[in-house]
Amino acid sequence: MTPSLIQRLDGWGRTFSPFAICLLLILISLAPLRVPILTTASPLLPLMAVYHFGLFRPTLLPHWLVLLLGLLIDLLAGSPVGVNAVVLLMVRHFVEANQRFLVDKPFMVIWFGYALASAGAVAGTWALICFLLWAPIDPRPAIFQYLIALAFYPLAGWVFGRSQAKTRAA
Amino acid sequence: MADRMKVGQLAVSLKGLAQRFAFGLLVLTAFAVMVIGKADTVIIERVRSAVVDIAAPVLAVVSRPVQTVNDAVAEVEDLIAMREELTRLREENARLLSWQNVAQRLEAENKALRSFFAFSSGPQATFITARVVGDAGSAFVRSMLLNAGARQGVRNGQAVMTADGLAGRITEVGETSARVLLINDINSRIPVLVERTRERAVLAGDNSRQARLTLMPPGMTVEAGDRVVTSGHGGTYPAGLPVGVVASVSEKAVRIEPLVDWNRLEFVRVVDFGIAGILPPQPSLVPLPRRGAQAPLP
Fold it and tell me: Do A32 and B133 touch (CB under 8 A)?
């Protein structure tokens, strides 16, 4: 029996939802948002999505797609090209390497995994940009951004989880 | 037959090799792009402009509901601060009225003196109003995307202002979009002078909310509250554009609070003062005739 159009559309939706969500989050992270706390955390939204989908839907977020997403962030945000691509690839690799310690574990463990991955990502971004600009950048805003985003992760993780549950139910 | 099998085996082993090293290859690709971006900025700038041109309309749509949220937040903040604001505005109004008298007197005096010396004023400035559609305000980069580009007359190096003061300058121009490097970005350097003492310095961003003064002359007598304006040196900006106010003076640094309210940037003015500047024009883009709303600055 050949699948109906609705089934096929649904299949495409499921296949592309991690990519589409990452893309949407990149746009949201660039939107001129003026909500105080959210604005600080928003640049790390794509990182949260890569961590989450790299963990729970790894086949739908292959490495090459992560590379493209990273390059897109760099091009749009105006940061040195390649920095976010390298950092997101590393996060995706970290998640893959530690998948068995993180999947089907309590949320606190997943959150701890995010804390480690994003700490490495923020430190890596800081080091790469300092090197490329050959100037010492004050790390405090980056640390502050990391902490705010860390506190924001449970909400983001819940939203990503809901989107997954919906596609699974469908 | 044996040859075909050999080729097949080779293909399989190559595929296995590629899969095994795929991650490494992708990381290498990303590093290669980084090196190209550092070595050949022209190519990257072109790609950037093209990507931003495509993304700008989407960002404009995304920023509409965002603007609604921003308006709601601003509304609540305004309501809370209304009583204080009213008192402040009354005081400011009284002060401004006295300044108006002074300004009118000075204008008349200026006019008389100009006619006396046959003074020729500089070229008239024109401006293009643009909407802020993207705001890359991360810990590492401070820039904004505008929904106006070469087609509207925006060119590399032009100053970007709000009603409060200088916000930054144009660093990338696409067909219908442009990027503004804000004055607090780590790459931003602006020749300024302290209005009260006329001492020159360079305003450097460091990706924080405020910027700092560098290359100050020895024994500089700057005080908190002093206004800082562009000095006009270097030819990027004309002299006298308001930039910020000295927020703090310490042994280590003189911090400047920009006059621009970063939380309320929705529309900006891209200003062309008719200065060639130190920035060469972008080779990729030929300036097109202007169609955007333009008017001489008051």
Answer: yes
